[in-house]
Amino acid sequence: MSYPLLGSVRLPKSKDAKQRSFNLSDIRVTMELHPLATPWRSERQFPSQLNIFDDDAFGFEVSGVGYRPCYESTWDIKGPPVIGKGLSYLDFRLILAKCKNKDSLFIPSSLLEIVKSESVELFNDDTYYLNVTALKEVKDIPINGLDFTFHTNEVEYKTRGDSIEYIWTISITERHFLQFIFSLAANKKIRPHIPAVEDYCSSIMQTVQIDFPDWVEREKAAAASISRDKNQVADIEPLVWKREADTSSYLDFRREVAEKAKQTEEQQ
């Protein structure tokens, strides 16, 4: 895996990305992605051909939305080559979701309503999360003739610090949608370079192509015929959770981690 020779923040070179293809019951998704680029994590492999109508393949939640992974990888983010220090890492996940008993996802705003309700369901759990601001910067983004809904989440986990998520979501049938999720470990070293990381994620998304079979095009047309609303995104306020650590032991743990990190930096 090659990185640029120069730069204050370095991510894997775009020219070294490889095309990945996913056949989702004749819905063909392609994009250019780097293989795993970190020594401390294993790349997870999943079948590239999936039957999206097989309910048993989805882990359905109480909400009636089921998920299955299509692809996962992690890339180190490096600093200047002379210093040689890693700044952070970037996780990528491609997730396929299926909704039961929902309005057609091709009806504008229907998809966003599900994303919002799923965010509430996820982040209401205080087992893993402290402070969360979800559904920031919600907007429509057209890419290669496709209509994506974009948003960000800022998440403070109980055990692994802060994360910023950049998420592109798109309906692929009246019951299925895809989420392209980039999760940045948002430590102090990477924060000055966050705009560069978001641009990098956006450049990867520019390689996404989705070819729909005729039966999906008919679903789109049916949804358009019953909905006059052409706007996918309505005004939406971010969802915010503010939590304090519930035990002094956890506060001690965080202070200890911060102190060890400071000592490590001083020794280098």
In words, what does this structure look like?
With 268 residues, this protein is of the alpha+beta class. It contains four helices and twelve strands, in the order ββββββαββββαβαβα. The protein has helices at 110-123, 194-205, 214-226, 248-267, and strands at residues 18-24, 27-33, 49-50, 59-60, 65-78, 86-99, 129-143, 146-157, 161-171, 176-185, 209-211, 239-241. Strands 4-5-6-10-9-8-7-12 form an eight-stranded antiparallel beta sheet, with helices on both faces. A four-stranded mixed beta sheet has the order 3-1-2-11, with no helix packed on it. Strand 9 and strand 10 form a beta hairpin. The longest helix is centred in the C-terminal third of the chain and has 20 residues, at 248-267. The protein is globular. The chain starts with 17 loop residues before the first strand and ends with a helix. Residues 247-253 have low confidence and may be disordered.
Topology:
Elements: E1 18-24, E2 27-33, E3 49-50, E4 59-60, E5 65-78, E6 86-99, H1 110-123, E7 129-143, E8 146-157, E9 161-171, E10 176-185, H2 194-205, E11 209-211, H3 214-226, E12 239-241, H4 248-267
Parallel strand pairs: 1-3
Antiparallel strand pairs: 1-2, 2-11, 4-5, 5-6, 6-10, 7-8, 7-12, 8-9, 9-10
